Amino acid sequence: MVTADYYLVLSAILFALGVAGVLLRRNALVLLMSVEVMLNAVNLALITYSRVWANVEGQILALLVIAVAAAEAAVGLAIVVSLFRHRPTTDVDEADLLKG
Amino acid sequence: MELVIFLVLAAMAVLAAVGVVAQRSAVRSALFLLLHFVCLAGLYILLNAQFVAMVQIIVYAGAIVVLFLFVVMLLGMERAQEPPDLRPYYGLVGGVLALLLVVGIVWALLLGGAGEITAAAAGGSVRDLGTALLTGYAVPFELASVLLLVALVGAVALARKRL
Questions:
Q1: Residue A96 lies in a domain
Q2: Domain-ending residue, one of B78, B101, B136
Q3: Would A100 be classed as within a structural domain?
Q4: Distance from CA of A99 to the nearest CA of B (A)
């Protein structure tokens, strides 16, 4: 029998993997992918609670998170493209234009 | 049976997430991301959220991964390998921090008591979600469309030739 705890622990592990990706990687594209992993982990937790409480609101919120994630990916990738035009690299450490 | 399906999907989702983070090539990361999204869609179906699972496949696996692959190839980064870190302890520190985060989140979740998955389930069909979205949650639903429009305009404005 799969309990809700299994799903929540899985969600925590996936979220931490996304955080590790954001902390460790320097490629801006992989950074955005790690953010998507984190958003998906949150969605998993939301849908688990929706199932536990037999309430459809968690799924509604998950759908809104998906919409926000799509917007975030589009704008983030546009920023990466724009940054690449300025300096041909996707290394986020190279993006130090505002550093004094 | 349910436990077996859950364990297979969960193991694949975790391994795919590790692949996203650990692969040095951005194209392989994007393909592991695709596998990750599909595994999560399977988990959503296990949780009786069929419509969200389908949206997950269409939006994430269909649109977002294609967008990532498109940008990776547009920028010609598919052959670029990220150079190894100058300081090798970075990986260790990041791993320990991530592990601490897992322990913290799990502790907080289990302290609160997650509750049991009972037979009574919220509907996850298009009808249930459509009714909820267009009655009680009509305002957030419409705001999401405004957000997508703003993101569309913003992405076009940001990616233009002259910033």
A1: no
A2: B78
A3: no
A4: 19
How many domains are contained in chain B? 2
Q: Which residues of B touch A83 (CB under 8 A)?
A: none
pLDDT tier for residue B162 given thresholds of 50, 70 and 90: low
pTM attached to this predicted model? 0.89
B22 sits in which H/E element: helix B2-22
Nearest CA-CA partner of B78 in B31, B34, B26, B32:
B26
Q: Give the nearest partner residue to B159 out of A55, A72, A78, using CB atoms.
A: A78
Question: Which of A37, A71, A90 is facing B148, going by the closest CB pair?
Answer: A71
pLDDT, one tens digit per residue, over B50-64 is 999 999 999 998 899
Q: What is the pLDDT of residues B76-126, one digit of tens each?
A: 876 666 666 666 777 788 888 888 888 988 888 777 766 677 766 677 788
Chains A and B form CB pairs within 8 A to the count of 237
Greatest Cα-to-Cα distance within chain B, rounded to the nearest angstrom: 57
Please report, for residues A7, A72, A80, A87, the alpha-carbon distance to residue A95 in angstroms, rounded to integers and kept in the order given. Answer: 37, 19, 10, 8
- Does residue B83 belong to any structural domain of this protein? no
What is the domain extent for residue A21? 4-91
DSSP string, A25-36: --BHHHHHHHHH
* From A6, A30, A51, residue closest to B48, measured CB to CB: A51
CATH number, residue B15? 1.20.120.1200
* pLDDT value, residue B9: 94
Interchain contact, B47 vs A5, CB within 8 Å: no
